[in-house]
Amino acid sequence: MNNKNLSRRLEAVAQEVPSGAKILDIGTDHGYLPIHLVHVNKIKGAVASDVNHAPLQSAEEKINREQLHQKIETRFGNGLGVIVKDDAIDTVVIAGMGGSLITSILDEGKDALQYVETLILQPNVGAEVIRTWLLENGWTLTNEQILEEDKKVYEILTAEPGNGTAPYSDDIKKREKELFFGPYLMTNQSPAFTKKWQREKKQWESILAELKKAEKNEDVSKKKAVIMEKIKMTEEVIHL
Tell me, what is an example of a GO biological process annotation in this record (predicted)? Predict the structure, then answer.
């Protein structure tokens, strides 16, 4: 992967960025995303941040080498704490982390989020945790993507301020499935979506088989019940 030729995962993230945006790329790694977005004239500027010095230094070197320092500023720090109102950030990207870490970053940076118009979130795991956070914190899930790259399946969630319940059913049981699988992904079931949940179901079945061999106690019974419910939901959603 190079600056102008992104991975499929980051290319899908880039597609969600509004034209003319000023972005904060949290956990920018080597700065691939903001550099690409400037090269294709999609954004007016970016703040690229990371909590690790080495990748941030690599990003700085690339930005300076390509003379993009007037468009992209690098900052060392954690989450939304690296920006202030005058940065005029309207789009926040958090990609390549777990869902729980992403939601903790959003929780800790709620004050900064009041000026943000778009969230683009790409969890490696735990997308359902993010959907629940968006629902409970006044963000409308506006789009979802799912794709496979290098035998891994990634989900990309895009949201804007508004009615968090908008894409979800009023029926409690259906909403539970939508939060877990994704309301848009459930409706437009792609091969990557089906493959992901077939794989997950197989893993749960293996775990369940081992639990059935274990000594019976309350903890084991609870774990079995949770896994059996996940398997049941998966069969209902993707008709296995």
Answer: methylation
